[in-house]
TrEMBL record, chain A:
It is a multi-pass membrane protein. Keywords: Cell membrane, Membrane, Transmembrane, Transmembrane helix. It comes from Oceanobacillus bengalensis. One of its GO terms (cellular component) is plasma membrane. GO terms for molecular function: ABC-type transporter activity. Residues 19-387 form the ABC-2 type transporter transmembrane domain. This is ABC transporter permease. The chain crosses the membrane at residues 21-42, 183-207, 228-254, 278-301, 313-332, 338-356, 368-390.
TrEMBL record, chain B:
Gene3D superfamilies: P-loop containing nucleotide triphosphate hydrolases. This is ATP-binding cassette domain-containing protein. GO terms for molecular function: ATP binding; ATP hydrolysis activity. The lineage of its organism: Bacteria, Bacillati, Bacillota, Bacilli, Bacillales. Belongs to the ABC transporter superfamily. Keywords: ATP-binding, Nucleotide-binding, Transport.
Amino acid sequence: MNKFWIIMSHTYMTKLKAKSFIISTAIAFLFIIGLVNFQSIIDIFSSDTTEKIAVIDESDALTETLSMSVEATNEDMEIVPFDGTEEDGKQAVQDEEFEALIVLSLNENQLPEATYYANNISDTSNQMFFEQQLQQIKVAIATQQSGIDAQAFAEINEPIAFDSVALDETAKTSEELNQARGIVYIMLFVLYMAVLSYGQMIMTDVANEKSSRVMEILVSSAPAITHMFAKIVGIALVGLTQIVSLILVAYFLIQSKQDEFIGGMFEYLGFGDISPSIYIYAIVFFLLGYLLYATLAAMLGSLVSRVEDAGQMMMPMIFLVMIAFFIAIFGLNAPTASFVTVTSFIPFFAPMIMFMRIGMLDVPLWEVGLSLGLLVGTIILLAVIGARVYKGGVLMYGRSSSLKDIKKALALSKREKS
Amino acid sequence: MTLRLDNVTKRYGTQLAVDHLSLEIPEQEMFGFLGGNGAGKTTTFRMILGLLDITEGDITWDGQKINYDKSHLIGYLPEERGLYPKLTVKDQIVYLSKLRGMNKQDALKELEDWLEQLKVPEYMNKKVEELSKGNQQKIQFISAVIHKPKLLILDEPFSGLDPVNVELLKKAVVNLKRQGTSIVFSSHRMEHVEELCEHLCILHKGSPVVKGSLRDIKRSFGKKNLIVHGDMELGFLESYPGVVKYKRVAAGCELQIENEDVSQKIFSELHGKGFVRKFELEEPSLNDIFIEKVGASYE
C-alpha cells in the first residue's frame, strides 16, 4: 500500500508539473472564459451604430408600417425615407451613406412588392429580415382586402395547442426529459474527453517508462500490478484536478455574470431540479467507465516498446469510445431502439449508453444492476489479465505490437509450477 | 543469508533459457556470472528478483523466497540502463529510493555522499538526459546501491565506462562488499571477474559449465600456461607430448600444457640447446578456461 502511494503521488506530481498539462489546462481556461463571455465578445466586434436603410416608397403607404414594425423588432435598424430617384439611392448606398436601399411598390392587386439593393448580398440576414417584415405586411393587407376581420385573422394565426403527456406513470415528463438530456449530454461529452485524453496519458506514460527502460527497476521494487493501478489512480487524480479546477473557474465566472445567464443556457440544459439519483449514476458510470478504459490503456501501453507505437495501440480504444459516444447521442432521440437497449449491456458501451437510458427512460433496476455488474466484472477481468500482460509486457521489447504480443506477454508471466 | 538456486529451469515456450542451474552464493561475497550473450544471465537475475516466474526449481535467500517485502534489502542494476530522461538526478533518486523503503532525508544525504564518491557532485540538479551515457550509468548505479542493500545484483556494471570510471566503480563495489553486501554480478570481461570474485559460474546455453571458487576452478582445470623465450629452434614443441596448444611469438613461444609435469620435461629437453631467456609456468587465465569451456571468445 505504501508503495502504491509513492508511485501514485509521483505520477500525480510529475504530471501536474509537466508543461503539456499546464498548457492544456490554460487553454481550457481560456476556452471557458471565452465561452462565458461569448455575448460580450460578440458585442465588442459588432458595431454599435444603427444601420440605416433607405426606402423609396412608390406607393407612399408602406413606409410607415414597415418603419414601425422594423423598429419594434430591431432597435439597431433605422428606416429612412429617401427622397431622390432610385439611381440617387443606389449611389448613396455605394457611397456607404446607407446600408441598403429598398424600393417598395404596389402591384396590380394592390399588394406590396420590394427590391433590395446592397453593395453585396452575401449577408442574407438583413434580406431575410426584411422579407419577413414585408411578408407580414402583405398578409395583413391581403386579409384586409378579402374582408376578413382582425379577430378572425388573429385566430387563424394563433399556433395550435400541442401538449405531450406520457401515460406510463413512471415515464419522464417532457420537462424532466429536457433536464435529463442536458446532463446526459454533458456527462457523455466529459466521459468521452476524459477517456480519450487520460487514457492516452496513461498509455504514453507506461510506454515512456518502458522505452526509457526505467521500468525494470520499477517492477523490481514494486509489483507490476501495484505499479499499474497506482498509475491509473494517479492519472485519474490528475484528471479530476483538471476537471474540478475547470468547473470551479466556470462556476465563479458564471456567478459573476449571473444576470446574463438566468433563464438562459442553464435552464435549457436543465440544471433546475433534477433528482439527485441521476448525479449519483453519473458519477458511478463515469468512474467505472474511466477505470475500464484506463485499465485497457495501461495494458495496451505495456505492450509497446516505443512511445511512437502507442498511437497505433490507441486506435482500437478510440473506436470503442467513439462507437459508444455516437450510439448514445443517437439514443438521446430514440432511447427505446432495440440496439440501444442491447448495447447498453455491453461493458465498453455501458457507461455512456446505460447512463443515457437511465436519464431518458425509466429503466428497471435489474437492468441497471445487470449492466453495472457486467461492467464491474469486465473491469476485474481486465485488471487480472491486464496485470499479467503488464508484468510480462514491461519486460518485453520488440518491434511489432499486436494481439500476438498479448499472448506472448501472458506466456512470459505465466506461472508454470511443476 | 545465503542465496541458493536449486535446480532452476526456465523455459520460454519450447526454448530452454536456463537449464537445471544449482548454485550457492555465500553471504558477503562477490559472485561472478560469466557467459556469452544469450547464456541466460539476465534471465537468471530476473528469476532471482521475482520478475520472471521459475518454470522448475527453487530460489531461496536465507531459506525464504524473495518477494516484494524484501525489496528494500535488494539492489538491482539492470543490463538495459534506463532512468527518467526528463527528471533531475535528485528527483529521480529520491523517487527510486522511496520505492526501496527509504525516506527523503536519508535518500538526499546518501545521494550527496555517493555523488561525491563518484566525483560528480555537480549533477544533483541536472536532468538525466543532459548527462553523458557513462555518467547516467553512475547515477543508475547509485540508484541500485543507495539503500544499502544486503543483496546486490549488477548486470554488466562496467560496460560502457572509461577505465578511470571502471576503477571508481570497482572501488565502490569492493567497499560495499566490505560493509557486508553480497554481490552477484555478470560480465563479459574475464579480468573483472578474476579480479573481484571469489566464486564464479560460467553459463553456457543456460547451464553451468564451470562453477565454484576461483582457485579451485583454476586448480582443477589442470592445464597450465608455459612461456618459453630462447635462442633456439622451438618448433619441435608443437608436437611434443603433453602440449595442447602452441603459439609462436617473436621471442619464442607460448604453450598450453596438460599439467605441471610436462613443463619439467620440456625444461630438461631445452637444456643444452641454447640460451633460455625466459621460462615461466603460469596459472591459466579465466579467459583460457572460458574459451576452452564455451568454445568461443566473446571479447
